[in-house]
């Protein structure tokens, strides 16, 4: 079998497993509703809102993705500020409420972190939650990552694939000194910026300033200003017919991603990665990065000069480089192993092997030697300010409209599930009853079902309805209502 075709098919199979099902979306809605109730019982947090961020808001989460939760304190219409000690006190009150009310287990209070957090696992689906206080910056960063998909829909697929690959090689855990998921996403952005031709622009062309520094004053105004700037710039980038178009396949992009960072440990000794500028930066001449005290520098493009890879030490940097080098060698060697042996953890391989489609592709995989380095391990605040010129289509290199497909499609749950900015309103989800809200343009989106990959597994609880994506089904079942 042609290797390029084999890798392309394998990546498709992996995405079918990683993409969240309707039940995965629904379960996270329920968990966030449970957390809202817990917070509402804490007197000192009366009037606070519970707002998700991270991969769930950016739509970069997998079926097993965690939930990042921010408890936003009431401060009238202004962006609330609270000191670290006060946040620690509030999280202790939330911890007591969680233990008292039940519904969560594995509760851990991490007070010494740069951002104090409370970790817990929901009894519903064992979903892991990280709870912090006043993390509006995290919410806005998640929005911006979500908006990047409007420029190129391959971004999301690459993030899901790379995160799974990184977990399989034990390099996606900041607690053990490797890369967090945000850093991995930034590496993919940087890769897309430095491809020939470039897929994504330097992020300064989307938001030129320091976004986090601009989150001051009246919250609604600050958020709208950022959204308006991004709206104008993204539409300008998408409508620029003079931009060279990169038509590389997902398989080609993944191989070139591995190749690009094979020498990351060597290059990191003198240069840092700047997605804001879309290029490697010499550390010695970049004054805002001084003094250099990190083994690896990946600048946060929305909060310069923060280093998102500050947890990575020199020893783990070599481990990260080795993962890039060995994976690239195995996938491009004349004596290739099957791509699944390089890309996924055993539990993901098990799900793929049970699917009817992948079964014929990986026949005989039990003979492969697979030694992964790691063990197996909500309410959606969709970006509300972007108004793209073409909601469900993008232009190919010839200027012809094409429909978004499958996981690339902006789902209605993402477009409609929004929070009210006012801290005096709470947002809940309700089942739609006979709603006919699906627009004609939405109904024309070509949807690729993810159900086929799971239809033989009786324990996943996924509907066997074909022809619609799980996220599209979710959009038809849920809506947001605000109550006073």
TrEMBL record:
Residues 433-444, 459-474 have a biased composition (Low complexity). Residues 10-145 form the Poly(A) RNA polymerase mitochondrial-like central palm domain. GO terms for molecular function: RNA uridylyltransferase activity. GO terms for biological process: RNA 3'-end processing. Residues 421-484 are annotated as: Disordered. Residues 421-432 have a biased composition (Polar residues). Pfam families: MTPAP-like_central. InterPro entries: MTPAP-like_central, NT_sf. PANTHER family: POLY A POLYMERASE CID PAP -RELATED, PROTEIN HESO1. This is Poly(A) RNA polymerase mitochondrial-like central palm domain-containing protein. It comes from Deinandra increscens subsp. villosa.
